Amino acid sequence: MNISDRIKEQVTKTPVVLYMKGDPSFPQCGFSARAVQVLQLCGVEKFDTYNILEDPELRQGIKVYSNWPTIPQLYVNGEFVGGSDIMIEMYESGELHELLKTVA
Predict the structure, then answer these.
(1) What backbone phi and psi angles, to 5 degrees, belong to 21?
(2) Looking at the whole model, is its pTM more than 0.85?
């Protein structure tokens, strides 16, 4: 399976998917920590995460797949939402909470 197919499978098998550095219990960058915190503040209890630091192919592949150069990256219902800055903006406006209510 090529990396694009692998990513497509990952983002469609669970409603909320976060590609990050580290994992929710031990984020390895501030942006990833904020992304996890925002999801938790929105009441998301179940979401899959993929640590891109453990998989160089995934680290590069996710950037190509989304056409977005930075990590973390959030996917909801198979659709790319954005990185931590976009997540924070959407959280502050209430838009992220509304989007995530559709999967809760």
Answers:
(1) -100, 115
(2) yes
82: left (phi over 0), alpha (psi -120 to 50) or beta: left
Residue 18 CA to residue 11 CA, distance in Å, equals 9
| DSSP 3-state of 48 | strand
pLDDT tens digits, one per residue of 38-59: 999 999 989 999 999 999 999 9
Q: Cis omega (within 30 of 0) on the bond before 24?
A: no
Domain of residue 89, residue span: 3-101
Question: Which stretches within the chain are classed as H helix?
Answer: 3-13, 30-41, 56-66, 84-93, 95-101
Structure tokens at 46: 């179940």
CB atoms within 10 A of CB 53: 16
CATH number at residue 59: 3.40.30.10
Structure tokens at 77: 């219902």
- The count of domains in the chain is 1
Calpha distance 50→85 (Å, rounded): 19
